[in-house]
Model the fold of this input.
Amino acid sequence: MTQLDTDAHLIERAKLTPESFTAIFDRHYRNIYAYVARRLGPDLAEDVASETFLTAFDRRHSFDTARGDARPWLFGIASNLVARHVRAESRRYRALARAGQQDLGLLGPDDDAVAGRVDAAAVRGKLAEALARLPEPVRAVLLLVAWAGLNQQEAAVALGIPAGTARSRLHRARQEMRQALGADIEVDE
Done:
């Protein structure tokens, strides 16, 4: 790579010639997308990866060209955007937990399915509360196994963590779920 092809030079040039920033996009998009897809899944990955580059473009004037490589800067922006989505996910779980408790008041006393609906609403609320309490790295492993159907090894690969770490996080998540649902509920190991 020549001096004129470095990330720092391209970003410096993009300050005067904005279309020069496309080289930064072309060079780093695939890696940013892959990282975001691992964190948030493919449905959000394209939007968040694109937002990463839009933010970087808007902040190109503040990039420290002495750094040279833009990768750490871009991954920092992507990580902040991912964290925003993770916080929103936690808020959704808390809202679902509250909605589960509120649903109980909507059932009529003569409804034949009252018992089943009450049980389902109570369990949904407890699960949502427990999911909201889990730290994101622990929740990520659990949701990859429970929702995506991955095994522990596949979840570890998807998150870029050792298999033993995935196993311990999944164990912790399952303990939290057992505790939230009551010890009489069986959660597959």
